[in-house]
TrEMBL record:
Name this polypeptide is given: DUF3291 domain-containing protein
InterPro entries: Dimeric_a/b-barrel, DUF3291
Domain DUF3291: residue ranges: 3-133
Organism name: Hyphomonas chukchiensis
Amino acid sequence: MHLAELNIGRLLAPTDDPRVKDFMDNLDFINGLGKSMPGFVWMMEGSGEPGTGNTEAKIDGDPQFVSNLTVWEDVESLERFVWGTVHRKFYERREEWFEILGGMHFVMWWVPAGHTPTLDEALERLAARERDGD
């Protein structure tokens, strides 16, 4: 089994707005770092345009709602990336770029090795977590 994770957020401004420029300017760097980590398996990709990450994967048609969907070999690999790299510094700055959401914004679940989760599947998992708890 592998570990899938989804986190969502709503940007404070459109992706081309100066208020979120530092976040957008570093997406490719942070995503590339994640992809190079031991234990990384897969990441949902966007258009491939530099500096856009996967921000084109809109939630409910809202261009400021962005998502990150990845698969890892295990919890430890994801944890090492999130807390043991420069990613942590960007995570700690999230309030500069993202609204505080009233509901759940993060979910993890086990998937069979080789399974590529869809955004719809991940959003269903997030909704189930919000409805039913951990």
